[in-house]
Amino acid sequence: MLFHVRMDVHIPKDIPSETAERIKADEKAYFQSLQQSGKWRHIWRVAGQYSNISIFDVESNEELHQLLMSLPLFPYMHIEVMALCRHPSSLHADDR
Amino acid sequence: MLFHVRMDVHIPKDIPSETAERIKADEKAYFQSLQQSGKWRHIWRVAGQYSNISIFDVESNEELHQLLMSLPLFPYMHIEVMALCRHPSSLHADDR
Amino acid sequence: MLFHVRMDVHIPKDIPSETAERIKADEKAYFQSLQQSGKWRHIWRVAGQYSNISIFDVESNEELHQLLMSLPLFPYMHIEVMALCRHPSSLHADDR
Amino acid sequence: MLFHVRMDVHIPKDIPSETAERIKADEKAYFQSLQQSGKWRHIWRVAGQYSNISIFDVESNEELHQLLMSLPLFPYMHIEVMALCRHPSSLHADDR
Amino acid sequence: MLFHVRMDVHIPKDIPSETAERIKADEKAYFQSLQQSGKWRHIWRVAGQYSNISIFDVESNEELHQLLMSLPLFPYMHIEVMALCRHPSSLHADDR
Amino acid sequence: MLFHVRMDVHIPKDIPSETAERIKADEKAYFQSLQQSGKWRHIWRVAGQYSNISIFDVESNEELHQLLMSLPLFPYMHIEVMALCRHPSSLHADDR
Amino acid sequence: MLFHVRMDVHIPKDIPSETAERIKADEKAYFQSLQQSGKWRHIWRVAGQYSNISIFDVESNEELHQLLMSLPLFPYMHIEVMALCRHPSSLHADDR
Amino acid sequence: MLFHVRMDVHIPKDIPSETAERIKADEKAYFQSLQQSGKWRHIWRVAGQYSNISIFDVESNEELHQLLMSLPLFPYMHIEVMALCRHPSSLHADDR
Amino acid sequence: MLFHVRMDVHIPKDIPSETAERIKADEKAYFQSLQQSGKWRHIWRVAGQYSNISIFDVESNEELHQLLMSLPLFPYMHIEVMALCRHPSSLHADDR
Amino acid sequence: MLFHVRMDVHIPKDIPSETAERIKADEKAYFQSLQQSGKWRHIWRVAGQYSNISIFDVESNEELHQLLMSLPLFPYMHIEVMALCRHPSSLHADDR
Questions:
Q1: Distance between terminal CA atoms of chain I?
Q2: Which residues of F are less than 8 Å from D3 in CB distance?
Q3: What proportion of chain B, given as a percentage, has pLDDT over 70?
Q4: Cystine design at J4: which of C63, F69, G40, J82 (Cβ 3.0–4.6 Å)?
């Protein structure tokens, strides 16, 4: 089941840079593990902004929520979620 | 080059249904030709709305604009475009 | 899986009242069938508005979308969908 | 009488974590007491956000306000309230 | 129990003026009956707009909704409802 | 002359609580003096929010502005003002 | 007493042009009478829009409302009203 | 003097196509005359929308307003105007 | 040439009051010099807010920008600018 | 390929002024190098605001993103990006 997720990142300026770098590194590792698992199917950077558009492929709302809440950057992000469905006109069976 | 495009469709109620069906059929054919060509890489239906989120893979803004303006449903749509880039953390080389 | 759905109904004034009444009757019948099936778990009227807040219990985004698109009043509604999860503090196992 | 309440939680980053944990624990205890009493009828987590949608069953606006103002997390929340009524089409007498 | 209600009136230009006048007359009669009953406690015109701010004194959300839905001008109004409580600092016991 | 005033209070978390309490006490005393004078005709708490809706009865915009600027909580409030008039349908001569 | 009034004019396309011209002529005559009386102290066109910013000098909200409701173009306008006061730093006694 | 102007075009669907084509042709001719004169310095199409971003080089607000009001498509456009200045860091003397 | 400027002032609470008073005094002196010169033609306080509506009479966008950027309070203000023109119906020749 | 970019700058008040000046100097140097290269084709100051409207001429979304992310002021800016195309009516071949 697919979800469209927009993440806008706002890291406060007064966080020590090492702390920020560590959180970002944890975020990247966590993200790549999910990408390999297929849960985090797509991620694109929004040009000009510290934001991304992602497509998650999960079994349930609950799973999506747990994945997002576990993001090391979660406390510093505004997240918008939209439930997606396969488009009836799409030629791809599951739109990979 | 990838673009995130949201399309919200509002077909006026007073359009004869045959006309509406013909336009939708033309739209589907046109869409599928672009999907096969790879230009229209992804399309998903927004759950609960006559809207879709699409990802276009084009050579330029100009090409994107021409593709969108040629949509049979274009006169009945509100369209928002966002330029995307490959995310630096993504494991996929081109995020297919 | 639960979804929060807000529906704002705008029936154009120039629709013949018999047509409007028939559509509303079809809507009520369709709604009650879904309520009995448990798919449409909750519905409440927003005080002062021709709007409702509903909670759907479905297997997937796709099922939700099909249920909503099949609403006789769908063409006359603005719909907003939010994916919900069980709240970690809730005492109810599945929050019935 | 039912009220739809949306709560968005924003705990400042500079609050000592023990303090934050204590407040959250108080919040959970207070919430569960109200859930058991039936006042706080439903609570769902909004997927991807530190927010919830709740349905309160209270005798008056005043009671609702007192319950909400007494939330330990109240100072850190943005709250939106909507008055609900039983939907005329609902099969459930009181929509439990 | 008090509710703050804002009503913005938009009567379509293509309604025959006699019809519009009749609806407005019905609205005035209905309003004055509620004002006399105390249900419609206050009404003020918003300067420069075909809008009013009203304070309703009702027993429940349900009663408020029925009163508002019965307004002859209801189909031509956008209505916003806010639940009010007595202010703790007010000297007036019930704020008449 | 009546004015509708909405006040949303945001007291910064880092103000010492004694200071906050003193300001609130001053605010209450100042408010009650204006309520007794009839200037501050109505005040209601917005259910679920640290906000109020008030109706002021003043001689001029200037007087309203001076009254509001003198509120001890003024620096911590967002205020919206709307000019009101007596509603032509109201049975109350001056809508007391 | 001064009020800032923004007027955005939207004359429906399907109004016969003679009717529109007559209404505009009435509007101009009515406006100029108020300008001469000093009630309508200032009027400026917003560059690029069929809108104006006006400053009214009236005795009360009621008078402002009557003047605005009597505008021949009133049914085709969206109007926003803001109460103004003399600025404490202004050198002009009454800011003419 | 430079002004940033956004124009969103909404031509009603019920306008006869010949009329629409004639208006568009007049618009193009008028535009090109202004482009040649240097008044209309830049125009770009917003990708995916029937909108443009333009930069006007005029002597005054008045001149800008007259140019815009004279656009054959003016009645069918929403226009936003922003006053621009030369950027202090720009290497181009007048940013041609 | 006239510009409508709205200024909303937000002085951070943690600025020492003497500093704030000095900046305000500088602002008043600077303002009065511009008022005397005719550049700052009108200023009104928005009732209930630390905001003003001003009308500037300047030779160009550039001059307006320099005047506004030189305001001692500029760093603490949100400013919105609208280009104005003389209204065609105005009786005053110079109400430019 | 052209992009319309709006940049709103918000430098926190608590940054040491030397640091702020250094960042601004770096920004100016970086900007001028891009202006000379033709990448940063246009930049205009928005009158009355610490904001600019810029037109970038780049090969891809990716290049635009890299250029923007490398701005020394990037952490202190809100940026909005719009993809532009050549307008079909423009007389300039590439709209220089």
A1: 7
A2: 47
A3: 98
A4: J82
